[in-house]
Amino acid sequence: MLTAIAAFAVLASLFGLLLGYSAIRFHVKGDPIADQIDAVLPQTQCGQCGYPGCRPYAEAVARDEAKINKCVPGGEAVVLTLADLLGKDPVPLESGEDKPKALAVIDEEECIGCTLCIQACPVDAILGAAKQMHTVIASECTGCALCVAPCPVECIHMIPIGEDPGSWKWPYPASVHHPLPQLGTA
Amino acid sequence: MQQLHASKTRQRLWRFHGGIHLPDEKELSTGRPVTGAPIPAVLTIPLRQHIGEPAKPLVRVGDRVLKGQRIAEPQGYVSATIHASSSGTVTAIEERPIPHPSGLAGICILIETDGLDEWAKLPMPLDNYEDLDPDVVRERIRWAGIVGMGGAAFPTSVKLNPGPHQPIRTLIVNGAECEPYISCDDMLMRERSGLVIRGASIVMHLLGARDCLIGIEDNKPEAIEAMCLAVAKSDIKDSACVCTIPTFYPSGGEKQLIRILTGKEVPTNGIPAQIGVLCQNVGTLAALAEAVLEGKPLISRYVTLSGRGIEKPQNLEVRIGTPIKDLIQAAGGLQGEGRRLVLGGPMMGFTLDSEQVPITKAANCVLALTPDEAPDPGPALACIRCGKCAEVCPANLLPQQMYWYARSKDLEKVQDYNLFDCIECGCCAQVCPSHIPLVQYYRYAKTESWAREQEKRAAGHARARHEAREARLIRLEEERKAKLRKKKEVLSKEPAAARAETGPKGTAVAQDPKKAAIEAAKKRVAAKKAALAEQGVGPKNTRDLTPSQQRQIDVAEKRRAAAETAATQAAGED
């Protein structure tokens, strides 16, 4: 009887030590789920979800404080991926439909060089200095539209990106075959 | 003749999985000899005719260009040069409809031809290519703007540079031309077999390949005969072999042809160079031989015009940039009702919305199909899981599973089933009893996956930039705070130190020249005042005062005294 108790006590303390050691040794810093969610988000940092950037939204979703359908630029694809990742049911986008992608373009005639847009840009995609004309580096612009509101002369416009043969995607097939377009006599 | 027979039968053949028999319909267009298409009034030459970056224009509107003149240069490594295919004047560089399944427009150079067809000065032929550095020959091929003419339009100079870690043993010449209707490679092999073989010889020399296998389907006996003769007459007769392969779709697919001729499988997501094989289309080899041996760039190609909607189906030698409408006219125009224009073959081609689109380097066939030839398959029905698609898939895939996942937009899952090994041959859709447009689903899933991949890369880039910005802002804020703290420290130290040494005034004067000047001026004024007071002269405004003025002065003096005492008290407390 006593041996059994002693043996279990020894075993329990051994395992306790082992667990305690591994809790310290293999401690994971940060929140891996938030990291995974952040990796899915489009990183526009636009704040349309109501959080100041993608990372805070990812953390809120990880804490189950925010719904998964708030990311406007991510669209349906992000909702589906997040639903898959978190084992939740996919829900329709809060903002309705997917918005077409756009780029910010500064009307250089009207720009007064106030630098307000430069301060607003989350990815440093606007180039310029005080009292100098500003311009958007198109390859870096994420289309978040955060620079539009601060502009005092309203010279920034969001121009939708048109489709070109290089970026064109085959459409999702219609469930019913449509008759093929027929050409008239040439 | 004995030698011919030997070169035809030496090779053992293998089979690939799946595939289907299709009515070949080639005799429609092989009955007439190949003629040159007339020079069109306007050439529309797209800047993106190849895989990779579009070319960059070298000419401006209004320039006169000559036939064979470079009008656009490659941008980046995977890109191709573009040449004017006839002489004339550049009238515009703008967006025009191009042959693309989307029907979208692309940037084109428009040349109004002058009918003279005047050649530009061409570079020297490289007849002695065997003695030259392979890089010189490769540079010539790049200059000539040669791309894969079987349909993929991958820049040939890039393909011919597989790198030292991938030695090429076998060159495979693709003359299979397995799709119905198309006969341009057949006609090319009949008429220019010598050029094709010389092209093969150049490529073998460039790559150091030891064997050359020429795969031709057995429904082209004339082409086989011509190629055998050309091989027998060539300098590669010992290493080259014309292999007659059964007519079976899609034996002309790169991986399928390699399997048939060598028995080797190209690894998934891999390229043939990994197994020491390189595959070239016969049209590409002919163009390459012309570039190296005659100094001519790629400005024309053989195009099949066929289908029962065309009056006189035939093959034409067409200048790149000729509108399809002109070609149809050259082939006697359209006939019949309700026909469908297709660019490429009936299995892998796409419907054209406009007859204005030009012929590009990769365009091998224009079809005008009557409703009998291309019947409307009717509405897609539910998948009954019959498995026929998997039986015919030449890439050994599971089309049914890929269909389910593509339909539910599960792009990860569909990639797990090796979506990217699909060659879009259309066998599965052809045999599907439910008429499901399977290839459309795979194309959707492929382009969507590429777009997602690109978005992911862009997101990673944006994240890095955002994090860098955040870090910079924090750093700047800290720097600002540190500066403030330092300033405060200096300010708070200074007066204490000053008081400890010589009193507030002394140090301040000693330290600041401005303050010193003020003190000096004050002293001068005080000395002057004292001198005047000695003489009994006071300031004018202190003499003959009215009682009210005197009162005001008293009040002001009192206020000043109070303020001074308050100031000294405050300084003391500080």
Give the mean pLDDT of chain A: 86
Rg measurement of chain A, Å: 26 Å
Helix segment tally of chain A:
5
Q: How confident is the prediction overall: mean pLDDT of chain B?
A: 89
DSSP strand content of chain A: 5-15%
- What's the shape of chain B? elongated
Report the biggest beta sheet of chain A as strand number plus sense, adding barrel if it closes: 2 strands, antiparallel
- Distance linking N and C termini of chain B: 117 Å
The residue fraction in helices of chain A comes out at 25-40%
Give the SSE string of chain A.
HHHHEHEEE
Decide which structural class fits the backbone of chain A: mainly alpha
Largest interface: A-B, 37 and 48 residues
**Oligomeric state of the chains present here:** heterodimer
Q: How are strands sequenced across the largest beta sheet of chain B?
A: 1-14-13-17-15-16
| End-to-end separation of chain A | 102 Å
The portion of residues forming beta strands of chain B comes to 5-15%
- Residue stretches of chain A low in confidence (pLDDT < 50, at least 5 long) are 176-186
Would you identify the regions of chain B where 5 or more consecutive residues have pLDDT less than 50?
Answer: 1-7
Number of DSSP-assigned strands of chain A: 4
Radius of gyration of chain B: 41 Å
- Structural class call of chain B reads alpha/beta
Task: Kindly describe this structure.
The complex is a heterodimer of chains A (about 190) and B (about 575). With about 190 residues, chain A is mostly helical. Helices cover about 30% and strands about 10% of the residues of chain A. Chain A is elongated and about 90 Å long. With about 575 residues, chain B is α/β, with parallel strands linked by helices. In chain B, the strands form four sheets. Chain B has a six-stranded mixed sheet, with helices on both faces. Chain B has a four-stranded antiparallel sheet with strand order 2-8-7-4, with no helix packed on it. In chain B, strand 5 (about 70-75) and strand 6 (about 80-85) form a beta hairpin. Chain B is elongated and about 135 Å long. The termini of chain B are far apart. The model of chain B is unreliable at about 1-5 (pLDDT under 50). The interface of A and B includes residues 140, 170, 176, 181 and 183 of A.
